[in-house]
Amino acid sequence: MSLYASLTLTVGTVMTPPWAGLPAAPETAAAEGSMRADVVSDVCPEAPPGIAPYVDLIFSWVKYGVLAIIVVTAIVSIAAMVVAKFARMGQLAQAGAGGLMTAILAAILYVTIYGIVTAITGSGC
Which of 43, 79, 80, 120 could form a disulfide with 96 if both were Cys (CB 3.0 to 4.6 A apart)? Predict the structure, then answer.
């Protein structure tokens, strides 16, 4: 027995349920055949016309900037560890080692992020 039928039997008057007039849920629409799920999965990301050169320029700047930050972080971290060795400063050596590990992890992500983004967005559409 549905909720609507139980309301009708219990109260004795016909009440309009609050969900009357709302569109059907996607599961119901798919079951009825009015919506196909395979159409949604075939959408490929595409830049608006004429914007591709600007997007390429911005991406190249970002990639160059990230690479520069990784290199500077590695150099500063190595320099901190060298200075800490001669000055006998343990905390500076720990900070330098942490910075070097951060630079190494960032370099690994820098190399693999293209594969991750390609796997998410797809290619060859």
Answer: 80
Task: Map the chain to HEC letters.
Answer: CCHHHHHHHHHCCCCCCCCCCCCCCHHHHHHHCCCCHHHHCCCCCCCCCCCHHHHHHHHHHHHHHHHHHHHHHHHHHHHHHHHHHHHCCHHHHHHHHHHHHHHHHHHHHHHHHHHHHHHHHCCCC
Q: pLDDT tens-digit profile of 63-94?
A: 999 999 999 999 999 999 999 999 999 999 99
pLDDT at 117: 81
